[in-house]
Specification:
- The complex is a heterodimer of chains A (394) and B (439).
- Chain A has 394 residues and is mostly helical.
- In chain A, strands 1-2 form a two-stranded antiparallel ribbon.
- In chain A, a hairpin with a 7-residue loop joins strand 1 and strand 2.
- Chain B has two domains: 135 residues, no CATH class; 222 residues, MetI-like fold (Orthogonal Bundle).
- In chain B, 64% of the residues lie in helices and 5% in strands.
- A three-stranded antiparallel β-sheet of chain B has the order 2-1-3.
- In chain B, helix 11 runs parallel beside helix 14, helix 13 crosses helix 14 and helix 14 crosses helix 16.
- Chain B is extended.
- In chain B, 43% of the residues are buried.
- At the A-B interface, helix 4, helix 5, helix 7, helix 8 and helix 9 of A face helix 1, helix 11, helix 12, helix 13 and helix 14 of B.
Chain lengths: 394, 439
């Protein structure tokens, strides 16, 4: 019996449990609701819970233990039937069915809320496990301090993270160098200068940029921006002839981050109390003087938090760099050369046929863990700064 | 200190400087807004200008005589027996028909037979074969068929291939392009709407003209079903617990910090997780919508939880107090009163989370969703375990192919993807406008 049909059968039993549980307690009370502790429906649901939960739990455990055969299905069905009979016998008018049902529901709610924890634990454990495996095959000092990335299929690969880290940081730096001024100035203009009609038009337009999937930006970098930069900037200046470059990926990523920076800064600027503005205006300051000397200093911690969040997005971004930055691992200052990032190498080491005993595959987990630690650190710092800033004015 | 001897109406140098600074500052702001809007317009115009072509396809219209001797050698019109005839036989029939049609139309160009045959897509024989197998009675008759033209001929009509580029191209000759011009003038060749782009499966490297999004759209739909079926109940349940019942202690603090951080974990990390846990540890199949759906569920959960908690928070406490006052339990107050009032906000959050999941690509690359799959997956639930690409992964796949015709396909697929996202976001906005209540 396939799992699908087993679940269907147990569900059918549960449906019967509801009708029987309700009918039994009503007949015991001779149809008089007032004699019951709970509503009739609660007695039905109590029977349903009893029928479903143990049987499905047992089946899940058997499945995880690798016992998906007919024996497991039969055991689960028998348990469901037994529990159904037991639950029906429990349904007397004195039985506190509502309390039982609500305890069960609470258990489900608590279980659901621990899934977030389980996900984080899953991420950390799975990557830690494979990373440890990687470091038994490959020296960790070589990984963290070597400047050469040259994986080879025959073995004897050199897997130094430094060129990847450099590419990641360089691209993120260009992206932030573009997105932070543009996003910040746009936010200032929208919150302090723009009229209502302009805001109603431009704000959604910028938010569209935030809703566009990154694969679209990636293709935009690969087909439109890359050749444009190569033909109009890189080649005339003699800086390179590659369409995929740090500059291409950085600029397109900057476009992606504009709405991110602008909407976060907008929130933060609008949280600065109006009394600060009024005070500055009363002293005769112009609008721009108020913004530069009163609002921005007051909002600075929040804006720093927003920039850190944007940085963590930039470092973890994958599709734009996969399509726009190239695959060559090198340490160079020329922004028109192709470089590569941590995320690109995770993709290239893990797509295709994977041999999970080779350091060339396992290195992706070490890269992933590094990426996770970096972005987690940035996020925690950013959230702490933003939270402290919020408390300042509350 | 001397008092400046000046009119009150003319501004002094200091004021003029400050005014200039004000105007400059304002111009920077406006400039930043314009840069953002210009970037959006450039992006959208480049999507539309490069992608709309994929919705039209060049076809060749010729009469074909289906000789029974070649296509049904046994003569029984038995579909099972006719299945033994491969596309090669059909290819010969079509090539002969095309040569005849060209001769009949009076087009005389120095073309070899191979060049004439190459006008047609390599998919054309299969097209005809499917048609004949569906209706064996057609054999020994003459029918008018519209067959896919080769990708290069299609590119010529769309301006991607020119006489100059054909000189350097091994796959097409200038003579073939001249022939295409003549055939176009006589109505044997035309560019029509291409429904196959939305329904057909992917095609191999050599036949970009036949590639479609059918399997990818289905794969994405399956994944979205899984995400909706798992992320919505789990997300709502955990938000209800955290917002309505959880005591403030270390454990719930830990969960809260966790959710905030999970929302900002790079998506590729979820792909690594999916590969390590769902594929390596649990042994689920690669390239299957079930794995993609599970990974995207974990990714979407924080978004849905954050939106649901905001919606629950916006229901005023007086509603809860009133329910408790007339004797409801806390569970009843939440499920009978608070949750229905928060439902529009929760649904809006769910749709936005789903839209994010639909466009996500990076984690799918790691769990094999870029595989080349031509078979449609079965109906759910078995179909969840069949290999199928996803829409964004298909786009990535096409960008990695050599033939430039696939780039047009990729842009076209982006239009389809953006269309789905537009519909979903519009639904979310409508829902919010229609049902949002302010207390």
């Amino acid at each position: 019996m396939s799992p699908f049909w087993l679940v269907t059968a147990v569900l059918a039993l549960a449906g019967a449990a509801y009708a029987l549980g309700r009918a039994r307690v009503l007949s015991a009370a001779a149809g008089d609701h007032r004699a019951l502790h709970s509503l009739p429906a609660h007695y039905g649901w109590a029977a349903v819970q009893m029928t479903l939960a143990p049987a499905l739990l047992l089946y899940l455990l058997l499945l995880l233990a690798g016992q998906a055969g007919p024996v497991a299905a039969a055991a689960a069905l028998a348990l469901a039937l037994g529990a159904l009979i037991w639950a029906l016998r429990r349904n007397t008018p004195d039985f506190r069915a509502r309390n039982a049902v609500e305890r069960g529901m609470m258990a489900v709610l608590i279980l659901a809320s621990t899934i977030a924890i389980a996900t984080t634990a899953g991420i950390v454990l799975s990557m830690l496990f494979e990373t440890r495996h990687f470091f038994t095959l490959y020296d960790w000092r070589e990984f963290f301090f070597s400047a050469i990335w040259a994986p080879q299929f025959q073995g004897r690969s050199q897997l130094g993270i430094l060129p990847l880290l450099w590419g990641t940081l360089y691209i993120s730096l260009i992206a932030l160098g573009f997105a932070v001024p543009v996003g910040l100035f746009a936010a200032i203009y929208m919150s302090e200068y723009a009229g209502r009609r302009m805001r109603a038009l431009v704000k959604p337009a910028l938010e569209i940029l935030a809703g566009i999937p990154t694969i679209v930006y990636g293709l935009f970098a690969l087909i439109t921006v890359g050749p444009l930069l190569r033909d109009w900037l890189a080649q005339p200046l003699g800086l390179g002839s590659s369409a995929s470059s740090v500059m291409t990926a950085g600029l397109v990523m900057g476009i992606m981050l504009i709405p991110f920076v602008s909407s976060l800064s907008d929130d933060i600027i609008s949280q600065v109390p109006q009394s600060l503005r009024d005070g500055a205006f009363a002293l005769g300051a112009t609008r721009s003087e108020t913004i530069r000397q009163v609002i921005l200093p007051a909002a600075l911690p929040g804006i720093v938090g927003a920039v850190l969040l944007a940085a963590s997005r930039a470092i973890g971004e994958t599709m734009i760099v996969v399509l726009g930055a190239g695959a060559a691992a090198r340490l160079s200052l020329n922004p028109f050369e192709a470089m590569t990032t941590i995320t690109v190498k995770i993709v290239s080491q893990l797509t295709g046929d994977n041999d999970f005993a080779a350091p060339e595959t396992l290195v992706a987990f070490a890269l992933g863990l590094t990426l996770f630690v970096i972005t987690l650190g940035l996020n925690i710092a950013a959230l702490a700064i933003v939270r402290r800033y919020r408390e300042q004015y509350e | 200190m001397s008092i400046p001897q000046q009119s009150l109406f003319a501004s002094d140098p200091g004021t003029a400087r400050r005014r200039a600074a004000e105007a400059r500052f304002r111009a920077y702001g406006l400039g930043a807004v314009l840069v953002g809007v210009a970037a959006l317009l450039l992006l959208l115009s480049s999507v539309l200008s490069s992608g709309l072509g994929a919705f039209w396809q060049t076809r060749i219209h010729i009469p074909v005589t289906l000789a029974g001797a070649a296509l049904d050698p046994l003569g029984g019109r038995d579909p099972a027996a006719m299945r033994k005839v491969t596309t090669i036989a059909y290819g010969k029939v079509i090539e002969a028909a095309l040569r005849d049609a060209i001769a009949q139309a009076g087009i005389e160009l120095p073309l070899t037979d191979a060049e004439i045959a190459a006008m047609l897509s390599k998919e054309a024989p299969a097209q005809l074969r499917n048609k004949v197998l569906a209706d064996p009675a057609l054999v020994d008759g003459t029918i008018e068929v519209s067959l896919l033209a080769n990708g290069r001929i299609d590119g010529y009509l769309k301006g991607r291939v020119t006489m100059d580029s054909a000189q350097l191209d091994r796959n097409v000759t200038p003579q073939q392009l001249l022939l295409a011009d003549r055939m176009l003038a006589r109505g044997m060749l035309s560019r029509d709407l291409n429904p196959g782009f939305l329904t057909a499966p992917d095609a191999s490297d050599l036949r970009p003209e036949a590639a479609g999004l059918g399997v990818a759209i289905l794969g994405s739909a399956y994944m979205m079903l899984i995400v909706l079926g798992l992320a919505l109940p789990i997300g709502v349940a955990s938000s209800i617990y955290l917002e309505e019942f959880a005591p403030r202690n270390r454990w719930t603090d830990l969960i809260e910090v966790n959710i905030a951080n999970l929302a900002a974990v790079p998506s590729i990390v979820f792909g690594v997780l999916g590969l390590a846990i769902f594929i390596n540890f649990a042994g689920l199949p690669q390239s299957a919508p079930i794995v993609g759906g599970l990974v995207l569920t974990l990714m979407t959960l924080p978004t849905i939880i954050i939106a649901t908690r905001a919606a629950l928070k916006s229901v005023p406490p007086s509603i809860r107090d009133a329910a408790l006052g007339v004797g409801a339990s806390r569970m009843q107050a939440v499920f009978h009163h608070v949750l229905p009032l928060a439902a529009p906000g929760i649904l809006t959050g769910a749709i936005i989370g789903l839209a994010q999941a639909l466009g996500e690509t990076a984690p799918l690359l790691l769990i094999g969703m870029v595989a080349f799959v031509r078979e449609f997956p079965a109906a759910p639930p078995e179909g969840f375990f069949d290999p199928a690409p996803a829409l964004p992964a298909q786009i990535y796949n096409w960008t990695q192919r050599a033939d430039p015709a696939f780039v047009e396909r990729a842009w076209g697929a982006i239009i389809v993807l953006l269309g789905f996202l537009l519909v979903m976001n519009a639904a979310a906005i409508l829902l919010r406008r229609r049902f949002e209540r302010r207390w």
